[in-house]
UniProtKB/TrEMBL annotation:
Amino acid composition bias (Low complexity), ranges on this chain: 120-129
SUPFAM superfamilies per the UniProt record, alphabetical: Oxysterol-binding protein-like, PH domain-like
Protein name: Oxysterol-binding protein
Cell compartments where the protein resides: Membrane
GO cellular component, one term: plasma membrane
GO MF annotations in UniProt: sterol binding
Family: Belongs to the OSBP family.
Taxonomic classification: Eukaryota, Metazoa, Chordata, Craniata, Vertebrata
Start and end residues of each PH domain: 12-105
Biased composition (Basic and acidic residues): 662-693
Primary localization: membrane
Positions of the UniProt region annotated as Disordered: 110-140, 252-287, 307-332, 662-703
Amino acid sequence: MSEPKPPTPTPGDTYKGWLFKWTNYIKGYQRRWFVLSNGLLSYYRTQAEMGHTCRGTINLATANIAVEDSCNFVISNGGAQTYHLKASTEVERQRWITALELAKAKAVHMQAESDDSGDEGPSSSPTSAPGGGGRTSEVQSTLRTLGCKVEDLCTCNDLITKHGTALQRSLSELEGLSIQGPMGDKIKQVTERATLFRITSDAMINACRDFLGLAQTHSKRWQKALQVERDQRVRLEETLEQLAKQHNHLERAFRGATVGPLSLSNPAMDNKGSSDSGKGDASDEDDENQFFDAMEDPAAFITVPADPKYHRRSGSNASGISCSDHGMDDQSPLEVEPVRQRRTRVPDKPNYSLNLWSIMKNCIGKELSKIPMPVNFNEPLSMLQRLSEDLEYYELLDKAAKCQSSLEQLCYVAAFTVSSYSTTVHRTGKPFNPLLGETYELDRLKECGYRSLCEQVSHHPPAAAHHAVSDRGWTLRQEISLASKFRGKYLSIMPLGSIQCIFEKNHYSWKKVTTTVHNIIVGKLWIDQSGEIDVVNHQTGDRCHLKFAPYSYFSRDVARKVTGVVTDKDGEAHFVLSGTWDEKMEFSRVMQSSKGENGTEGKQTTVYQTLKSKEIWKKNPLPDAAETMYYFSCLALTLNEPEEGVAPTDSRQRPDQRLMEAGRWDEANAEKQRLEEKQRISRREREREREAAKVTSPTEEGAHIDNHEALWFKKIDDPVSGESLHVYKGGYWDAKEEGSWDMCPDIF
């Protein structure tokens, strides 16, 4: 058996090799492959098992290392785990002991640093400007590396002192023995050499001690200087941002002051403009005299350039959209209220390792909502906040509310449907399951013109109701219940329930597609959306059929592709949509359709002649360093920001979620267990009350599965869509204005 190389005390290095591990009295010591990495000692039966099956892991940060004899040593973490190990030689055992002590010192130091950074909270990681953030992170990384090197040097210093003292003591005892002849001379020679080694080691230790003192002094000085520079940068950024916003407000106020009187003093000009816009945009023909390039989709339809005669005869602009986006700036008020500054960062995600398979291997085929999961797999947002995140692209609904044609309006509603999936492409963290009665409000009335409210209305099955209303002419409501199954290699999440969007004249509804999380056990997690959506206008019978193509390694299409066709009640196509659910969507007006040749599966392909495509939606870029902040979007970063006046049941008040966001995951796990146990006790009390009600009133037997009633929502049968769902019954915003929350249950 080849001996492993001596471990180099460098942060992040691993140490591997064969050791004999005590199993039981029948089999005795068995040969196992051990891997020491990142403060964790893991073992496998063979090297081939490293990719998929770990037999056990012990954390050295809380472990004790004891040497029994020349080849045997014991590692224990206080009784729960104890490894009796044996090396093949004494030299190999000493190499393992040295590597383990170094790894333990690093693990204890990293854990202390993690606790300190968790206590500091968001203030320890202020916002940095684009370009400056990279330099700051580089300096911080260099400081951390130097700090680790200094800690390693301290550990080596202690080990040399410890082992040198033991060696000198043993040689002194050996010299004291009365041994004559050549053996005595040899012992005297070894003793002299050991004395020289001790003198040299003492000199090196003194030099190391001086170096350590200088390094620690300069390190503190560098950190202070870096903190001063960082604070100055943050203050400069805030000043520049405030100046830019003041400049923007002054421009809008000036434009409103100059344009407004003109429109009031010349009503004839307004009448002329309105009558001209009603005739159709004939002046756009010269500017938009371009047509579609060929776009191919063999499984659904093909679009080709339309004949110019349709373009001139269409009586609309080239994009086919007659929504009037002008006039918003002209109506801006002269008095501009200051907009609240929202946060732009959350604490960085800690790098905690956890064996996923040890938790999930007994959960294959079960409901995800019934699997107890630690917060290590979560993101610091609840499912209610994820529902509210669907409103990130609310501007699409604002534009839809201004459309005169229901078919054009349907294009914007379909684009809004696709946009709600754009935030999921990198978000592999699981949101917190809301507690029964938990709520979440998102009040953006001043900034964006809307406010929304979510409430967890059922626990088994878990269901959440959402209501959002805008002063720009739309209302969004949804009730979502998740059905999820773990299949071993992937996790399927099937949203149940429907989403409804209501305008002044039209009422739309649709359902969500299936979300699949791949590489649950091995490999990098990635998310895919697949299925079909029918966005239906219940007033006119118009319909938009959207198809989310599942990812295929052998497909020549772009990944995450979405295609859609908008048709009227007679099935005639009017618009075509195409794009991806993680980047952008485009749409175009259909001038003529015809049946083409049979496709790859024997189905007849429809060919649409269309005008030039226009971009209808594009994903907002992620903030800087999003990969360290759970890949949150700019809106998601603000969802869990503390706010005054919210209900005591609001997700922002949830303690385990707040602790996780601060990086204190151990405390968050303990708090999560406490909240779940409290919810179980409440549910058992409701069951006892229901049983008592059955005894006193047998006629009510079977009336309710659970006697919990939502506080802010009530269940109705929607007369338009024919679906049963929870709708907002009012009272929340009045209670917030009055500051009266006596009716709210104590769930936290």
